[in-house]
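help with these tokens:
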Amino acid sequence: MNRFRAAAHSPAVTTRIGAALGVAFGICFLTGLLSHLIQHPPGWFGWPSRPVQLYRITQGLHVISGIASIPLLLAKLWTVYPKLFEKPPVRSVAHALERLSILVLSGAAFFEVVTGLLNVAQNYPWDFYFPSLHYAVAWIAIGSVVVHVAVKLPIVRGPKEPEKPSPGLSRRGFLRSTWLVTGVAVVATAGATVPLLRTISGLSWRSGKDLPVNRTAAAAGVLGTAQDPAWRLEVATAAGTRSFTRAELAALPQTTAELPIACVEGWSHSAVWSGVAFPDLLRAAGAEPGADVRVLSLERGGLYATSELPGTHTADPLTLLALTLDGEELPPDHGYPCRVIAPNRPGVLQTKWVRRLEVR
């Protein structure tokens, strides 16, 4: 076992990197859980419309902490892999539990970071529905972290062994290298979320000058219906259904706001939107602001062809049925003839090509 005498394999190094990895996993899990609750809210959950940048920040932290966890996870496994060759393989119940927790944690962690990275790249070499399985495995990963920490706590709290001369990098050298690689990985990709880093984030995605498009009008199959002169927006309320032409929507009071599109993939981009504020639109249709609204798109059968806009957002004057983008008529790929743009919402819920609003 002389080849495992390097200082990087010491419990002190493992503990330091494990603590950093636990923080990264914790942030990633909590922000991912928050995003899931926003998209699939249970009855007890509420999400505010202000501050407008909050979801952008939390989802950016989700992806940044996930990126940071990749080099930390690899470094952590490097420090402990000699234990896989220890004999006997199982010495006690506690030892068996420790080894099982490492196995489950490693498998779940690798699944999360690999599938998360591929999702960021919009590359899906699998048949399962990514959000559901990613969310389920996140619970397995965080549960195994808790078990692993509980098993290893006596070692973490125990006396630290002094560093002995050994081949390879010293403890400090290995730790500094790990922090450096992690920092480079974060800075190289964080420009997708942090505008100030876009000029130096060489590996950031969707960070150009133009607002990115995940799904085009042609891909959604709405290019013809969206540009049909006979298009009307239907607003269904308890008093009946009223329809609006695009010209009638443009004749209503217009509101302009700079709001971000914040995608679950971690990128975000601000733009200037103009259109009808939902409070004004609901009043024009005979309903009161603050009611929940179901939004239906011209797209048929897509995963996000409908969305639920809660009352906290329909009462907010910054929640718009947008008609223009950066001073120009809304392009088809960005939702023409009109789209929802609401503060502090995931991009997948900012429904494009709106055809009908149902006031609850």
Q: What stands out?
A: The radius of gyration is 25 Å. Strands lie at 233-237, 240-244, 255-262, 268-277, 293-297, 306-309, 320-325, 328-329, 339-341, 354-359. The chain has a mean pLDDT of 90. The CA atoms of residues 37 and 143 lie 19 Å apart.
